[in-house]
Amino acid sequence: MLPDQLPETDLTRHRRLREQGSRDRADLEAILDAGFVCHLGVVVEGRPIVVPTVYGRHERQLYVHGSVASRSLAGGVPVCVTVTHVDGLVLARSVFEHGVNYRSAMIHGEARKVTDPEEKLAGLRRLTEHATPGQWSYARQPSRKELAATTLLALRLDEASVKIRTGAPEDGDGPDAELGLWAGVLPLTSVWGAPVPDPALPPETPVPPHISRREGTRHG
Question: Cα(11)–Cα(159) distance, rounded to whole angstroms?
Fold first, then answer.
């Protein structure tokens, strides 16, 4: 296996729509870097729980944030983390052929609870900078009490499944093409809007450049 490829395991093997699957590690990293919200799946007391939370990537490791009150973030247990971006609706001539253009990643592994204070602080910085570059240095950083009230998990990006779907409907060369119905893709794009100040801010407080320059830029 090439070093820039993801290993194929029982959990990551593409069994359906194999043509949409990718083993390219660069595709995995691009999907993770384009977002900042994931869904963390874990079994707690025999029942599955899926928790939405924020994350940050550092090289081949994913940091996932949570509160110490969250039962799902105990650490040392098998987890599954998913990240999905929807790029458009694929509207075909028949309902059966409808679909979604998307990019998705599913990561499997055993989450490690970060306890080393230096790594924890570095991981939280990576999490903050992943969502809003420049914010860690601008805002007040966590106190000891706040750090103690925060759980941070680390998950290696060693076992992951990636799928990507692009393009038009697939019934353009079939019998339904004779129906005379419109078919195509309805793109979906997320764009950052204008910053909305906290009403408690003094009117003269400026928007920092690292936030204002994101207005009108694409997310995802």
Answer: 8
